[in-house]
Amino acid sequence: MSASVEALEAALRNVHDPEYPVSVIDMGLIRGLVVQGETARVRITYTSMGCPCKEMIVDDVRDALLRVEGIETVEVEEVFEPWTHRNLSRRARRTMNELGVT
Amino acid sequence: MSSSESELDRVVPEEWSVTDDDEALAALVNMIVVLADNKFFLGRRFSEWLSGGPSLESAVALAAIAQEELGHARALYPLLEEMPVVDVPGSLQRGAERERKYCMTALSEPWEWWADVVAALILVDPAMTVLFRALEESRYDDLRQRAARVPSEELFHRKYADGRVRDLARTDQGRETLQRRIDVMLPEVLMWFGPSDEPGVAALKSQGLVKLDNNELREAFRSDVFPILEENGLRVGVDDFAWDRWNSLQRRLG
After folding, report:
1. How many interface pairs between A and B have CB atoms less than 8 angstroms apart?
2. Is there a contact between A50 and B69 if contact means CB atoms under 8 Å apart?
3. Which listed site, A67, B18, B116, B251, has its alpha carbon 20 to 30 Å from B47?
4. Which of A48, A80, A84 sits opposite B146 (nearest CB)?
5. Side-chain half-sphere of B211: how many Cα atoms within 13 Å?
6. What is d(CA A80, CA B143) in angstroms, rounded to the nearest whole number?
7. What is the full DSSP assignment across B70-98?
8. Is B83's pLDDT higher than 90?
9. Is B4 helix (H, G, I), strand (E, B) or coil?
10. Contact assessment for residue A82 and residue B101, using Cβ atoms and an 8 Å cutoff
């Protein structure tokens, strides 16, 4: 049985941005999640085109999704969509505020 | 941009649908490698000043700026790999070398003075941003997506550049030092947009791949950058362009 998109999203809620204790979902980095058979396809953007943590984030996303039952392959595509602080979820904003990040 | 790359023989054109116009395709390849190389070398030159700037704050700011410039180059180089032409210039990332560089002469060698850094911040970086803005509605999706992100990331670079121009222009000595670097860099930056009626750019514009022609880009740059320079007592007159020394393929003087 194929994994569900909800299962992928739940897995990605445990993948934190390398700089803040905020998941890549709450950071607004994940722009698409699709399951095709045993393959998870992820569309991702970053807070900056020069983000030095891209490889680390991709590795963490891949590792998390490969632990989802039914997923054997993960394909991550960078989509270069704009990112602003408005893409942060309320939960992420609360965490950022608690950390003193404005 | 340039249409003189005779080695750009087309391959598998049916799999690539952005344009079937050979002149536009050659100009597109040239424009991407020119943008990527200039971003790459701008980032490299800035990174060389992380320990040579006037303050700790300048080092931190330049580190962030250099990282983003390199990021912009990193986003552009993969586009070259999907071009339906042979002998496309390769990436310069991760220590890769290529004999022919497509960057301005002003970026070719390490800079000697802090004023060079400031001149590049206020001239070279904004010139490229003008071109990225002209690509924000390009019919070439992969390029449009990348180009559309760059101007917003450049806002901070520009604020920093304006501040450093004001810093240097506060004293006669600082202003004169910056003026000398501007006198060297500005003619090449203005020429970087290319001569009037360049066939490759005309093809790009007619194909909906870029919004402005060379003169419109140059004028947009003047409108964007000259006010801050003139407000600070800096001269921006360039009497004529040395097109006889212009390399249209590498888009540089010399």
Report:
1. 35
2. yes
3. B251
4. A80
5. 14
6. 10
7. HHHHHHHHHHHHTSSBSSPPPP-GGG---
8. no
9. coil
10. no
| CB nearest B152 (choices: A50, A52, A82) | A82
Give chain A's domains with CATH numbers.
5-98 (3.30.300.130)
- All residues of chain A having their beta carbon less than 8 Å from the beta carbon of residue B68 are 48-50
DSSP state of B51: T
* Half-sphere exposure at residue B153, Cβ-oriented, CA atoms within 13 angstroms: 27
Beta bridge partners of B93: none
| Pick from B42, B209, B202: nearest CA to B126 | B42
End-to-end CA distance of chain B: 18
* Confidence bin at A52 (pLDDT 50/70/90): confident
Residue B88 DSSP code: P
Segment B49-53 long-range contacts (CB within 8 Å, at least 24 positions apart): B49/B111, B49/B114, B49/B117, B52/B114, B53/B114, B53/B117
Q: How far apart are CA B70 and CA B82, in angstroms?
A: 20
Q: Which tokens is A74 given?
A: 């993960």
Using an 8 Å CB-CB cutoff, list chain B residues near A31.
Answer: none
Complex ipTM = 0.76
Domains assigned to chain B: 20-92+103-253 (1.20.1260.10)
Half-sphere exposure of B109 (CA within 13 A, CB side): 4
What is the per-residue pLDDT across A15-31, written as a single tens digit (0 to 9) for each? Answer: 999 888 999 999 999 99
Nearest CB neighbour to A80, from listed B68, B70, B149: B149
Distance from C-alpha of B102 to C-alpha of B96, rounded to nearest angstrom? 14
DSSP letter assigned to residue B87: S
Per-residue pLDDT at B12 = 43
Band (pLDDT 50/70/90 cuts) for residue B13 is very low
For residue A76, report the phi and psi dihedrals to the nearest 5 degrees.
-110, 125
Strand, helix or coil for residue B28: helix
